[in-house]
Amino acid sequence: MTKKIKIEVIDEEGKESVFETSVTKPELPPLRNPPILEGIDDLTNLSYLHEPGVLHNISVRYGQHTIYTYSGIVLIAANPFQKVPLYSQDVIKAYSGKDRGDLEPHLFAIAEDAYRCMIKDEKNQTVIVSGESGAGKTVSAKFIMRYFASVNLDPNSPTGGDSGMSETERQILATNPILESFGNAKTTRNDNSSRFGKYIEIQFDTKINIAGARIRTYLLERSRLIFQPDSERNYHIFLSGWWVPD
Q: Residue 198 forms beta bridges with which residues?
């Protein structure tokens, strides 16, 4: 049975608003988190963990120009759609050697956590980057690899800069444009959208230096070779009008 209900809302400025809706099972709306928790850096610390509370908290942090938020062991990133000064060598140095939670949520904190666990436990570590098209997965993966190539365990040694990287590390970072040329394409949502999935395995030697990498490519969107929707393009490597045989 469908019932109509009215919800009266009074905001912080005392303004009253009335909303009418129809529901089949009348239930109370989700409880609001106390104001002191607005913009908290870890969603698991919210008093009431529900979708409106999560979205509101991320929105508040985004309005504070903070694009990263923890949810337990997961890092949530909101694409700023502009360049932000969060990935310099000074920031890499700041997160190097720090425990997750010592500083603000950041992609480098996740990378550092994986790096430290690899050294401590002597086991392989995995960082999974997922999200919808245009969320920033490709860029995030680049910064993670840059962190691994730039971080230095010796606090008395300078970190970062190409001068601190080995030739192997520079070659790994240099593979990104090639991978994107063969696997990225323009879509209606993203001019440089990854149309394939990839698993990058970074190999370290006994001195915790990068010794090499393996890249496994999978889920290539082969249909794009012969057909693209309106306003979209083939892979960057192909010119318009080329014919690609089976």
A: 217
Residue 12 carries which side chain, given as an amino acid letter?
E
- Locus of tokens 């601190």: 164
CA 9 to chain centre: 35
Structure tokens given for 163: 């001068």
pTM for this prediction: 0.77
> What tens digit of pLDDT does each residue of 87-109 get?
998 999 999 999 998 999 999 99
d(CA 171, CA 212): 9
State how far Cα 71 lies from the chain centre: 13
Measure Cα distances from 83 to 54, 79, 205 in Å: 25, 10, 34
Q: CA 117, CA 113: separation in Å to the nearest integer?
A: 6
Separation CA 201–CA 214 (nearest Å): 5
22 Cβ neighbours under 8 A, 6+ residues apart = 2, 3, 4, 5
